[in-house]
Amino acid sequence: MNQLYEVKVAQRYSAGPDISIIELESSSNENLPPFEAGAHIELHLPNDMIRQYSLCQDPTQQHCYRLAILRDQHSRGGSQYIYDHLHQGSQLKISAPKNLFPLVNSTEHHILIGGGIGITPLISMAYQLKQKNQSFELHYCAQSSEQAAFIEELRNGPFAQHVTFHFKNQGADHRSYLQRLFPNLAKSSHIYTCGPNPFMDWVFDLAQTHQFPNEQMHREIFQNVVDLHGSCFEVVAQQSQKTIAVAADESILDALAKHGIYVEKSCEQGVCGTCMCDVIEGSPDHRDVYLTDEEKQSNEQILVCCSRSHSDRLILDI
Predict the structure, then answer these.
(1) Whether residue 216 sits in one domain with residue 119
(2) pLDDT at residue 278 greater than cutoff 80
(3) Which UniProt keywords apply (predicted)?
(4) CB–CB of 139/203 below 8 Å?
(5) What span, in angstroms and rounded, lies between the C-alpha atoms of 201 and 217?
(6) Which phi and psi (to 5°) does residue 191 adopt?
C-alpha cells in the first residue's frame, strides 16, 4: 500500500464557472513531498472514491499543493463530490506525487499545448522550464477567458512572454495557428499536450503529419473510455490458488474481488497503473493507456481494471 498523507483544504476559491482552485496543506504543518513538473496526486475522498489531479504550481513550492477541479457533468462523481463536500478546513488523505507526464531532460525547444482544464500540468512545466532557462512556448486553448483558469497568473507571471492565448470567443482559431506553426518547428522539439482526448488526438495527428518522432510527443491522459466486453475466460490466481471465471461483461478486477482477492485500484480506467499484475502465462488483451506498446507486446504485465484475455486462461502472480 502506498503511503498516504493527511492534508487539509487551506483555501478554496472559484476560477470561473465550474472551476474551483483547491490548495492543500499538511495537517501536521510539515512540507509536502517534492515533485517534478507534470506530476499528479491521488485524492482519497471521504466517500472512498480515489481521483487523480495534476499539480498546477511552481514545483519549488513544498508548503502546499494546488489543484484545479473542473466540475464535469459527465464525470463518474468525483468532481461533483469535491464541489459539494470539500471546503476550507476539510480533511482528507492524498498519495505522494506520481509522474506519468514528465518533462524530458532535453535542451531542445518544448511546445506546451493545453486545452481547457488541461492547462494544469503545463503550468508546472512552464515554471520549471523558466527556472532552468530553457526554450519553450505555452499555448492555452479555450472557449473563452471567462471559462479559463489562471489567466492573470499566466499574463503577468514570470513566463508571460512565452504564453499565447487562443480563445474562440475572441476570434482565435488554434487549429489554423498551430497548422502554421508546426512546419517551422525544429523536428528535435518536444511536444506536450493535455486536454480532452479529441483535442490531444488532433495535436498528435498534426505532429505526426509533420514527421515528429513518436518519442518526442507526450500527453497526459486521465480519462480512458474502456469497453469491458469480450469473450469469457479464466484467471488463475497462482498465489491464492484460485481459478476464477471472468464473465463477458466483467472486469478481472471485479471477478477477483468476488472471490476475496482484492487488488489495489484507483482510476479503474487503465490510466494510472495502480492495479498492474504480473502475467505468468497467457495472452492479455491490453485495453489500457498506461503500458507502452513495447510493454504490451512483452505480455509480462496486465492492468486488471480494464484489460481482458486473448487466451482462454490467464495465470497471474497474485
Answers:
(1) yes
(2) yes
(3) 2Fe-2S, Flavoprotein, Iron, Iron-sulfur, Metal-binding, Oxidoreductase
(4) no
(5) 11
(6) -115, 130
Residue 226 belongs to some domain of the structure: no
**Cell reading at 14:** 472559484
Domains contained in the chain, number: 3
Determine the pLDDT at residue 25. 97
Cα distance between residue 235 and residue 308, in whole Å: 10
Rounded to the nearest 10 degrees, the angle between the axes of helix 197-209 and helix 174-181 is 30
Q: What is the Cα–Cα distance from 55 to 59, expressed in whole angstroms? A: 8
CATH code, 182: 3.40.50.80
Determine the Cα–Cα distance for residues 202 and 171; give it in Å rounded to an integer: 20
Find out whether 125 and 110 touch, Cβ atoms under 8 Å: yes
Q: Does 74 share its domain with 25? A: yes
| Contact by Cβ (8 Å): 118, 194 | yes
Q: Has residue 228 been placed in a domain?
A: no
Q: How far apart, in whole angstroms, are the C-alpha atoms of residue 59 and residue 67?
A: 13
Percent of residues, the chain, with pLDDT higher than 90: 77
Burial 11-45 (b: 16+ CB within 10 A, else e): ebeebbeebbbbbbbbeeeeebbebebbbbbbbbb
Angle ∠(52,54,57) on CA atoms, nearest 5: 150
Q: What is the pLDDT of residues 193-210, one digit of tens each?
A: 999 889 999 999 999 999
The alpha helices in the chain, defined as continuous H runs, are 78-85, 120-131, 151-156, 174-181, 197-209, 252-258, 293-298
- Give me the domain span that covers residue 262: 233-316
